[in-house]
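Sample intake — Guanylate kinase
Collected from: Gardnerella pickettii JCP7719
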Amino acid sequence: MVSLDNTQSTQSIKRRLIVLTGPTAAGKGTVEGVLREKHPNIWLSVSATTRKPRYDEFNGIHYWFIDEEEFARRQKNGEFLETALVHGMAHYGTLLKPVLDHLAQNVPTLLEIDLQGARRVKQEASRLGLEVVYVFIAPPSFEELKRRLIGRGTETPEQQAKRLQTAKVEIAASSEFDFVIVNDDANRAADELWNIIAKEYDLD
């Protein structure tokens, strides 16, 4: 596990954190994959979680897997940028120090998070004096989002209905974001996202 000594001052941060949000089945992961394949210098924040790893997940790559006691200790010590209890079952959180370290090194830094998380980041960023660019990945239409969700076949009908209801709330909040990218084509959407990042980091 990384050492989390939050002594990094935001005064040394030259660039802004890119926060990426979007509803389920909008294709955030696909856009990120294309983006990072084209621009491997981008750093994607790895969240900590108290849930158990799945068979194909690895510590430090997909998540930092920690127990509830350690999570609570780190939360008390102010080591998270934001935290959430998801589905009432497991805690998730964004580790603050790695984010600050990469920003201080002028590394393009990306955080993928849900709407509630983005709102919490906005509150904490203001307190920390950290500048953030908020980007929303939207589906071409709600019907297309529904088609994608049902087509991937990873949820029960009840879970699909719950996710679709949440997606309506998230899409309605897209006006809270600095940029909205419609993911009608992953390559085009990734290029649009890169243009935002490149402008923030003075990259070609």
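Post-analysis note: Confidence is low (pLDDT under 50) at residues 1-7.
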